[in-house]
Amino acid sequence: MRHFVKVLRVAKRHAVWMFVALISMLIVAVTTVFSYNLIRPVYDQVLGAGGAGQTATGSTGQSADFVVANLDALARYGRDRLAVWMGDRPSLILLLLLFAIVLKNCFSFLARFSMAQLGLATVRDLRNRIFQALLGQSQAYFNSRSTGSLVSRVVSDVQLVNEALAERFGDFVQDTLTILVLFAYVFSLDVRLAVATFVLAPLLVTPVVYFSRRLRLRARQAQERMAELTTTMDETVRGMRVVQAYGMQEFEKSRFYTASQSHFFASLRARAIQAANAPVMEIIGVVGAIALIAYASSKIAEGTMTLGDFSAFLLGVYGTYNPIKRLNKFNLAAQQADVAAQRIFEVIEAQVDVVDAAGATELESVGSGIELVGVEFSYSDQKKVLDCVDLCIPRGATVALVGASGAGKSTVAQLILRFWDVDAGAVVVGGVDVRSLTLSSLRSAMGLVTQETILFNDSVRINMTGGEEGFSDEAIRRAAEAAFADRFIEELPEGFETRVGEGGVLLSGGQRQRIAIARALLRNPPILVLDEATSSLDSESEAVVQEALERLMEGRTTLVIAHRLSTVRGADLIAVMDNGRIVEQGSHDELLNLGGTYVRLLSAQGSSGKVTQ
Predict the structure, then answer these.
(1) Whole-structure pTM over 0.70, yes or no?
(2) Given this model, what pLDDT does residue 55 score?
(3) Phi, psi of 532 (to 5 degrees)
(4) Positive/negative CA dihedral, 242, 246, 249, 254
(5) Residue 499: DSSP 8-state
(6) Quick check: 204 and 331 in contact, CB under 8 A?
(7) Distance between CA 260 and CA 258 in Å, rounded?
């Protein structure tokens, strides 16, 4: 349960609700026992089942233990208060019983509400911590995990923790207190009978241990199958165009049905264990009750116990049954929650590969520009993606990286943004190694426009500002105009307040790209990284976006990664990459004169890439 204990540590910041719940639960436990003790005078006086030696609260007159004596004294005090107003009569015990039940249920509500507040607030904090942890993770973390697996931790696993904490944990605390008070009460009534009764208690522990072990195993299997199911669903929905275009519906249906069936069997096995738990516990409880009655009948025949005493004892013992059963339910829920909490804290406590170094400084200026010095890099100890790369991007210049797919162009861009750290060498910005700069200051100085434009299911305005306040309407409009996006935005149903749909699905590719450019213009970064920014557009959209990009690049230090070589002819420097190395550098004309890799790339692209000298 060590992972569930971590959840309770998170709950400490809401300790005031725990305190209110504990006080309320203690009152509930005491009033429960008090109402049970009132059964004695109800049977022996109100119903006339007792003997001649009965006191005002049903005691046989024998020396009572501490707990029963104090409960009797409290009952006498309450009866005397009522008698002042209503006169002394046996039926006053019934009013006292009603008052105890009402008081118990009022504080029971307060206890449940307080625990719900504690549990739900803690679950909210867990979700927030997971999301915050994900926001700070490096690209290596996301590359090694599926989206569906991460989503299932936020949704499915947190829900299991919620069930255990917000719903079951309150029962656990309440039932523990109630059982302790009831134990004290029944032992106070008759020690020998109580000992005989609770000799049977170990029988209740055996199924608890067995079921908890089995359920823990099955619960983890079910949660793993749910992660696989979520991943399959996510991949299919995101790739629906490909699925439909290539007629892969039957394949995807089969894949999803297989994952769904695996989850079904894993969940069914877990539910079977849960379903068997309650019947087994009830059978054991009934057997114990029969043995208890048989043992106590001799004492009633001897006259050492009244029917009221035995009824109160039996009620007190049976009163522990439901709490014990609920404790077992909490144990079952907590076992599942512990597995879920383990998966949750795997995300929260995961090591972050790219972090601010101790004593990291703010990036003051671009200085002389950006420089890559002897950079080497590989993904997860695989073959080197970059091998001894040297590249200088002077301040205010436009440098283009070109080459075949897989040459390492996009990796260079990601290293400059410090999505990854180099294995060897250094990436230098403004004369400082990026590893010595704070991530926030480094990335705030850069604007990124990629081939896959990322838009969020919110308004055009929010997608341009990134949710940051402080941008005036005029600044937002000017950025849209500079990106040639103002005209189509004004034609949208609600203009800048129009929601663009998930991933910007309500807009065309060119429109999404122009909003991304407007987003970069609005932030006015000194460094610009364009990663295949026009490669997925048609010719008409490309022409508009290219013009917008040229406006964006004015006066900025720009790295352009391009597949279409026709888009980079005007760059100040073109670096040609091949197998992780820069094999040629120079202007467009200089590279043409070399007649090397650059010329072969131009020829491979046909007429769209050919130029005349």
Answers:
(1) no
(2) 43
(3) 50, 45
(4) negative
(5) B
(6) no
(7) 5
Burial 368-395 (b: 16+ CB within 10 A, else e): ebbbbbebebeeeeeebbbbebebbbee
For 35-89, what is each residue's pLDDT tens digit? 888 888 777 666 665 544 444 444 444 445 777 888 888 888 787 777 777 766 6
Residue 91 contacts residue 46 (beta carbons within 8 Å): yes
Strand order in the sheet with 581-586: 446-450, 527-531, 557-561, 398-403, 573-578, 581-586
Both tokens of 442, joined, read: 């480094």
Q: What is the band of 205 on the pLDDT scale with cuts at 50, 70, 90? A: low
Over residues 593-606, the pLDDT tens digits come to 988 888 988 888 76
Q: Which residues contact 12 (CB under 8 A, 6 or more apart)?
A: none
Residue 492 Rama label (left phi>0; alpha psi -120 to 50; beta): beta
Number of residues assigned to the chain: 613
pLDDT tens digits, 267-296: 888 888 778 777 877 777 777 777 777 777
The three-class DSSP label of residue 7 is helix
- Given phi > 0 = left and psi -120 to 50 = alpha, else beta, which region is 131? alpha
- CA distance to 51, 139, 422, per residue, from 411 (Å): 92, 11, 10
Closest among 30, 40, 94 to 310, alpha carbons compared: 40
Paired tokens of 356: 């601010």
CA 32 to chain centroid, in Å, comes to: 38
Distance between CA atoms of residues 45 and 524, nearest Å: 88
CB within 8 Å of 200: residues ≥ 6 apart:
284, 287, 288, 291
Q: Which tokens go with 566?
A: 């026709």
Q: Name residue 551's amino acid.
A: R
> For the chain, what is the mean pLDDT?
82
Question: Above 90 in pLDDT, residue 434?
Answer: yes
Query: CB 272: neighbour CB atoms within 10 A?
Result: 13
Name the residue with tokens 């990284």: 529
CA distance 169 to 162: 10
432-433 and 446-450: which strand pairing?
unpaired
* HEC assignment per residue over 329-351: HHHHHHHHHHHHHHHHHHHHCCC
Q: Could you read off the pLDDT of 337-359 as tens digits, one per residue?
A: 888 888 889 888 888 888 888 98
User: How far is residue 42's CA from residue 48's CA, in Å, rounded to a whole number?
Assistant: 8
CA distance 338 to 5: 8
d(CA 345, CA 7): 9
In the chain, the amino acid numbered 4 is F
Beta bridge partners of 391: 372
Report CA-CA distances (Å) from 601 to 537, 576, 578, 588, 611.
20, 10, 11, 12, 12
Average pLDDT on 543-569 reads 80
Q: Could you tell me what percent of the chain has a pLDDT over 90? A: 17
Measure the CA–CA gap between 186 and 314, rounded to whole angstroms: 9
